[in-house]
Each structure stands twice: as C-alpha cells, then as structure tokens.
Design a protein that fits this description.
heterodimer, A: 173 residues, Rna Polymerase Sigma Factor, Chain: A, Arc Repressor Mutant, subunit A, globular, B: mainly alpha
C-alpha cells in the first residue's frame, strides 16, 4: 500500500510534465498519452529499483527515450495531429484591451509553439526541458545524458533557431 | 535579419541570454552599455525578449490519464488525514471507535452453547466457591469478635476501668 501511495503521489506530481514533454516531442496527443502511460507502467515495474530522489530524472529520461522511439517508428508525420497551441490559446483569457494586439500575441504564441516543434530533436528536448518544464542545466544533462556545456550550447542554438524561424512574424512594439 | 548578421556572434549570445533571463548581472550591465550606443542591439534584444516572454507563458499540458481509482482514493484519504493535526485526531478517534465497536460486536456474537450437565457443574462449582468465600467470611467474623475485639479492645478497656475504680476507692478511703 505504501508503494501505491508513493507511486501515486509521484505520478500526480509529474504526470503533466511527462505528458507535456511527450506532446512537444511527438506532436500528437494520442501518442503522447500512450508514452505517458507506458512511462507510468515502466515506473511501476521498476519502482523498487529506482531511487526516489532521482525519480524525476529517470521519468523524463524514459519519456525522452520512448518519444524518440515513437518518432522513429512513425515515419508518416502528416497524421491527424492536435496542435498544443490550439488548447492553450483557447484556454487563455484575453486581458488585453486592444483586440489587434491580443490577436497578434495569440498568433505569435501559436507560431512559437509550431516553431518549437520544428526544432531538431536534440535542441527541442533541451529547450522544452529548460524553458517549459523548468529543469536545471544539471538535471537536463543527467536526463539526456549529455554534458552541461552541450546543454547550454543546444539551448542557445534552439533560441537562435526559434528567433530565425519567427523573423517573418516580427513586429515592432 | 540584416541587423543580426552585422551583430557579432558573441554579443548576440549575450543578448539571447539576457532576454531569456540567463545572463549574469555583469553581462547585463555590459549589454546595457552597448545598447545605449547601438539602437540595433536594443531592437534585437526587444525582439528576443518578446519571444522569451511568450515562451515562458507556455503552460504545461494537462493529461487526463488516471492511474487508478483505488490508489487515488487512498491517496486522497491519506492526504486529507495528514493535512491538519485536527484531521489526524479525528481520524484516530474514528479508528478507535471503530475498533471498540468491532470488539463489542465480536464479543456479542461469540455466544457458546453449553450442555445441561456443564451448566449444572458450573452451578455446583459456583456454590462451592461461594461456600468457600462464606467460610472465609465466617472465620474472619469469629476472629474479629473473639480475638481482636475481646483481646485487643474489650479487655484493655475493662482493665483500665478497673484501675480507675481502684484509684477512686483508695482516694475515698
């Protein structure tokens, strides 16, 4: 029972992180849910062997590996996908008085999401883990098994690429 | 992006780090000084900062995957019970009451059927026990009347009165 409680609290704490990361990586809600579920099962099977203090890294590392497997398996990327930005924009309330600015902001957000998804896998993982999931350099380094300096370089490259991709969208404020 | 190409790679990295909030104070000051003299840098910085702000606004996607009703219920109960000290005491009290009720029910239902001979034997045993107790009581009463009251109380009092009378008689004479 203690195992179940520990497991449950861990999953409750990290399930959205796992799902979000998988969703950014595979760009498909159904696949992301499958990955999340597989990670849950994997965690349950290996619960006794995992150090709970390192569980976060272990979970994200498993999610990353499974996401890469899914991407490799899925050659056809034109499947029905649900854009993450659609949800986030519809959920977000519009606090801005000027509808034009708010529209542009929403459009920018939409473009940012699609640009993130277009990033190469290594840059995308580092970028999502750092900027969206809030991981630290050290944690990302452990999770993805890459040196910290590489993490920093990937992050910088991802940011540059993102900006480059958004250059047409650029508007003066 | 003509402006960016003109900007040195190192300064661009500094701008990116500052826009995303990763730069050190010294880097920020140095960049600020540079931006005072170069308006292009300021534009690029603002551009990156706008993107960074939008990136940081991206929220984690929520998954509806559930790991099981039972474990959730357990978790909810435990989290409620251990949420406040008052809850802990209420839970303990409820547990105690449940335990007492359980034992009472157990005792009530544990009636054993005895045979007639067993009951007669039990009555005889009870009478024998009562007789022993009665005998002990009688013996104790006799001892109290004869030994304790006669020897320790009545006789010394009688002796005392006799002495007083003797003394009075001597005085009268």
């Amino acid at each position: 029972m203690l195992k179940q409680i520990k497991y449950n609290s861990l999953i409750k704490q990290l399930k959205n992180k796992i799902f979000s990361y998988a969703l950014f990586m595979v760009n498909n809600r159904m696949d992301a849910e499958d990955i999340t579920q597989e990670v849950f099962i994997k965690l349950w099977d290996n619960f006794e062997n995992i150090n709970l203090t390192k569980a976060k890294s272990w979970l994200l590392s498993s999610t990353h590996n499974l996401s890469i497997d899914y991407i490799r398996k899925r050659k056809n990327k034109t499947r029905d996908t649900m854009d993450i930005s659609e949800n986030s924009i519809s959920k977000e309330q519009n606090f801005l008085a000027d509808p034009e600015i708010s529209y542009k902001r929403n459009l920018l957000k939409d473009r940012i999401n699609s640009s993130i998804k277009k990033l190469p896998d290594n840059l995308k993982s580092v970028f999502v883990l750092y900027e969206i999931e809030g991981f630290k350099y050290k944690e990302i380094s452990k999770t993805l098994n890459v040196p910290i300096n590489s993490v920093k370089v990937y992050l910088l490259r991802a940011r540059k690429k993102l900006q480059e991709d958004l250059k047409e969208f650029r508007y003066e404020n | 992006m003509k402006t960016k190409k003109q900007i040195e790679e190192k300064i661009l990295d500094q701008i990116i780090n500052a826009a995303y909030g990763d730069a050190t104070i010294m880097q920020k000051i140095s960049l600020y000084v540079k931006m005072l003299s170069n308006k292009e840098l300021k534009i690029v910085y603002n551009d990156y900062k706008l993107t960074a702000q939008q990136v940081h606004k991206i929220k984690l996607e929520e998954t509806e995957l559930d790991i099981g009703i039972i474990s959730n219920t357990i978790s909810r109960i435990t989290s409620f019970v251990f949420a406040k000290p008052l809850n802990v005491s209420f839970a303990s009290l409820a547990l105690l009451l449940a335990a007492v009720t359980f034992f009472l029910m157990l005792n009530k239902n544990s009636g054993v059927n005895y045979t007639q001979s067993e009951m007669m034997q039990a009555e005889l045993d009870m009478k024998y026990s009562l007789a022993i107790v009665g005998k002990v009581f009688t013996s104790a009463e006799n001892r109290l009347n004869k030994e304790i009251i006669d020897d320790k109380i009545r006789r010394p009092i009688k002796k005392g009165f006799q002495t007083i009378n003797t003394l009075y008689n001597k005085k009268d004479k």
